[in-house]
Amino acid sequence: MTGLPDPRDLGSPAGRYRMLRLIRGFEELALGLVKSGAITGGIHPYIGQEAVAVGVCAALRPQDRITSTHRGHGHVLAKGAAPDRLLAELLGRTGGLNRGRGGSMHAADFSLGILGANGMVGAGGAIAVGAAWSARQAGEDRVAVAFFGDGALNQGVLLESFNLAAMWRLPVLFVCENNGYATTLPAATSVAGSATGRAAAFGIPAAEVDGMDTEAVRAATAEAVQRASAGGGPGFLECRTYRFEGHHTMERLMKLRYRTPEEIADWRGLDPLPRAAALLPPGLAAQLDASVAEQLAAAQEFALASEHPDPAGALDHLYADGLRPRAGART
Amino acid sequence: MRLSYTKALNRALTDALAEDPAVCVFGEDIGAGLAGPTLNLLDRFGPGRIVDTPLSEQAFTSMAVGAALTGRRPVIEFQIPSLLFLVFEQLVNQAHKFSLMTGGQAGVPLTCLVPGSGSRDGWAGQHSDHPYSLFAHAGMKTVVPATPTDAYGLLRSAIADPDPVVVFAPAAALPVRETVTWELAPIPLGTARIHREGADVTVVAVGHLVHDALAVAEELAPEISVEVFDPRTLHPFDWTALAGSLERTGRLVVVDDSNRSCGIGAEILATAAEEMRLIAPPRRITRPDGAVLPFALPLDRALQPHRDHLRDAVRAVMKPRSRHDEDPAR
Q1: Cα separation, B128 vs B116, whole angstroms
Q2: Do residues B18 and B155 both lie within one domain?
């Protein structure tokens, strides 16, 4: 495998393609594990939206931080989290990123600036603003990125956070992944005005980007990160994208009809992977695919071999100071 | 030194800010010091650390969570107790859950200070809540100091704590002043204080009600020996100290400015009944179930625990088989 990019280096088109493939393959693997019952609960698959996570994270520096969403695997992987430990987390194992305490919707790796996926729509926005404020207070050059969907555009707290970020010129980038639907509700029937218009109303430079094009997302992010890092304040990107799968894995069983097969097929025609592969020398994409398949096979082996947590430790980490609360049943 | 409750909070903030550059304060009108505890902080520590926020409670609370996750040690002042209802998501669903959900990767050293919780006489339904039981129930560290010395010491410990802590300064305790002849110092969370020792009845009093309990104890002294027990921290609660007190007295009355059902008073009675020495049925005096404080002062007062009720309850637990003597509405 000599000559292939470092799996976490998104600095080249080959590295970015590899990460797109890794996220796609990871999600396919996870879907299978949900179906088999190995992953309990469910996941919100990122398939179709990979160009956003990879394009944004390709323009970030190691010291930059992100907050993510319920559909967070792509962001977490693109920021550098180990796929084997993310998979172990989805499986609820002690080897998981969060020791099996968070699962899909709370995956985090603070050592990489990943302040967590988050189960509440729009919650990551103001947390990222706080991280940006914190960095400025500490005199550190770190940008914070908040990922959120079109559904979050109707959360008041997110709009409040636009105001704080703009007022205090904080180094934060708001990335709206507009996949067209807040669960089943079309953005067209739920967002008055426009996404970019909302940011612009607070004086935040806002751009609309083709969210199926990794290179376009990367270029737009790089510009915003550079501005934020230089003290120019927050930025906003609306990445127009689409999820090829349902909102969550339970939807597969439900046969909902809020999207037409034609619409899904049209967007599949814009799949970011072939577009990224087209930028590579002939044969390289296939080599990278093979390398990803190998990495994912190893990840699965690691994750399934990782131990289930001991129920006696169910309250571990509830308090950072180690406080043990009273048990619910006493003998 | 004569020390007021509000001045004690102000000194705790000043000392914490001076000692640790990671400490910062967020809140509404804190630059002007409208509520008292933040008076003069802006002049001394500057706008980088004393952050006057727009009226966006959810965003600035969440922002403080983000700051706490990344190395700061923020204090948020909430001018009105009911503002905590607006940020229940940010505190209970985010700040409190981060440590467990991340498998211990992240702590949230955030302090929420409510300098005027409970009724302030005439501020009506939306400014008179005293919601400490909700936070203790949710598992957030919850502190209700009764005296200026405790307010100083517990706020210092709250700010130094690695977990989120909510500090309720009862409005009715703010006029309390002490002549302080001792060194003010941090007081560990989770430690109760016995203000007055007694042999017959333990009165557990929360916050400003400690002062009512002391008055009743003094008044009843010729007939009944009352121990006044101030938990100071409601979560974690100092159960060991309570068990020790009940070993001595065996009788319990709790006076708690929460609504009756699911208030901390209910938990104290239940735990004592399950695990501690009781020789008489315990009593509690609380606000009514689901209370909303009405505006008119006689109505506002009618729904809060009162010294008369406390006196009656203490006498009632002294009588054998007297459990139905009391007005069932209380």
Answers
A1: 9
A2: yes
